[in-house]
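Hi R.,

As promised, here are both runs. First protein below:
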Amino acid sequence: MNMNGMIFSRVATLVLAVGLLGVGGCAATHVAIAKRDLDVQTKMSATVFLDPVAPERRTVFVQVRNTSDRPDFDLQRPITEAVTAKGYTVVEDATAATYVLQANVLQVGKNAPTAAEAALHQGYGGLGAIVMGTGAAYALSGSGRGIAGAGVLGGVADLVAGAAVKDVYYSVIADIQIKERNAAGKTSGMTAQSTLKQGTASEIQVSYDETVDWRAYQTRVVSTANKMNLEFDEAAPALQKGLTQSISGLF
């Protein structure tokens, strides 16, 4: 290749690289505009209806556990305050309560929106392999694909543009159980079955029937927060508010 040919080839490569960087920059600009405001959505997997009771029976025992890797994410206090604001008395003794509200925070942190939605549809009781944890953040667009088919230079464009603009999702997943005390003289029957592992080759089947004074309901609440370059400290109060409103809204 002669000198002119080499110069032309290098110029063409440079122009292509600049063009791809421009495309990456446009994608980053789109995310920066579309995701400039914090968007929080909170959904419940199944509706729970509680029977209305007389004012003197509006007593609730509230117990919130947090088994996620962010034990400082507090729901006990805001839920207690929200339930109290609705005219219920929060008691320390579960045996004296008409309702028992129990919550377990399963996951707090970055998560793919599809994983959070899957957790909601799966409902109370399990997560499987659908939670992506702290590694889920998306560069340039909600699809996370960047500039498809642009090759190595396209990857460089994504890297440069995406380094400054990230489409970030945080989620909180909580399982909820509410027990409602039966009216005086009424009881409920409960049948429980479980499978216990015995080593690697055998299982033990356990079942029992019991008469109880409660009716129990279970559901799951998932709250997600999305914004460009979102940090957890900004997302946490909004996620806490969304979960509190959804859970306390059952009363």
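And here is the second one, sequence first, then its structure tokens:
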Amino acid sequence: MSNRKFSINVSALTRAAYVAVATLLLVAGFPLFGGGKVYAATQLGQRSIQMSDSGASSNGISTGVGSGTSVVYEVSIVTTASADSIVIDFCTQDPIIGDTCTKPTGLTLTTGVAVPTGVASPGPIAANWTATTTAHGVELADGAGETHAASAGTHVFDLTGITNPQAPAGTFYARVYTYTHHDFESSGSGYTSPTAPGDYVNYGGLALATTNTITVTARVQESLSFCVTAADPNNWSDTANSGANAGDCAAAEVAAAPPAVILGTASGSGQPVLSSQTVDVGSGSQTASDNAIWTQLSTNATHGAVIDMRNSNGSSPSTGLCGGLSADSGATCAIPALDTLGGGCTSTTACAMTAGSAAFGLFVNQYTPTANLPGTVGTLTPQQPYYNSSHCGSATATNPCVSNSGTTWFGMDSGSTPANSGTPATNLGNVTSEFGSIVSTSSSALYHFDQKWQFAATAALTTPAGIYTANINLIATGSF
């Protein structure tokens, strides 16, 4: 048998052992070598970074929640030793200390990142700490002289003004290091870069994630509901549909009572006729000869709505405008609009009607039912000359007045400049013009707002016999 010599390469074994130890340390999460040294450091205790917004930036949402901009990162760490400075790196690759680190694309920390007073003790990070941004994150330090060290324990502080990594959403990482000197970049032992973090005393990694923002869309379409009826809203019980639409324009009672007004006092023949001795007014008495009309307006129009009134008795070559009652379809106007009489009655001023002075007028007011109440939103205000708070008849729950003289004043506008079709609310118009006369206005949305309309007329001794009529059209317009 021949003799053979065995040789062992000690240097090779030593290198292999070092590699094995390094591998174990790496797998265990311990810090490795830095600048030719192994530092005795302790891993942070419980640690977290909470984002106020997890949306990835550049995702199509420019501002606000979900945009990934103006984000606050609330940092919470538990240290085992006092600290005068902290470094936080943000990395795309991993949270392992000393490993290669590339800052996530789109992640931005402003130079004015805030460090407010900590909310945990002992020795919290205080307002006199300052923050500066780095190529990979942020560095925080107390003042010179190490007089503001943060004691070992729990520390919670905010980093503000951050823009998250840009879309697509995904995971990124943070690495946190604490130092016992306020100059974390001190010569020979301080922080240089994520791969050369220096002589930190506490360290730890964290994982964070940006997400796709949930976009919720709900559409609300424009709506307007307007009805005109001779039925008192107190009676809108909708018995035909088991009360399904009580108090609403859709109630069966609304359609069952078309708004026909017969003005006059019963004569010997039983037919109501106008008299020069009285002013015949819509009473709202709920009798067969009731002369009151009710309206209800609901709309989600942001800028409110207006109600215009038009009279079918328009102009003729011989008589001009007629906003009153006519026996010949407007060719003549023997019972004229109230504003043509003078004596304080104008197109913008209500007045008291005098029996025997042939005239036609209107009074409009808010109406508050006492039954079948679906709830009311908004305010619909009657305009002059159709309402006068000092002369609005008896003040009751269904006919409220600011003050009351006991005599209702009426009005009619047949002479104002026609309303502008583009901006009707800036010009009241008149009842014979193309867009009518504005009777009521609102500057906001409305829901189930009721009004009571009472027409009035009186004849003169010289008023020719005949049947006097007018078709009154009410138009509701929403400004969305």
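A quick note on the second one: Residues 10-28 form the longest helix (19 residues). Let me know what you think.

Best,
J.
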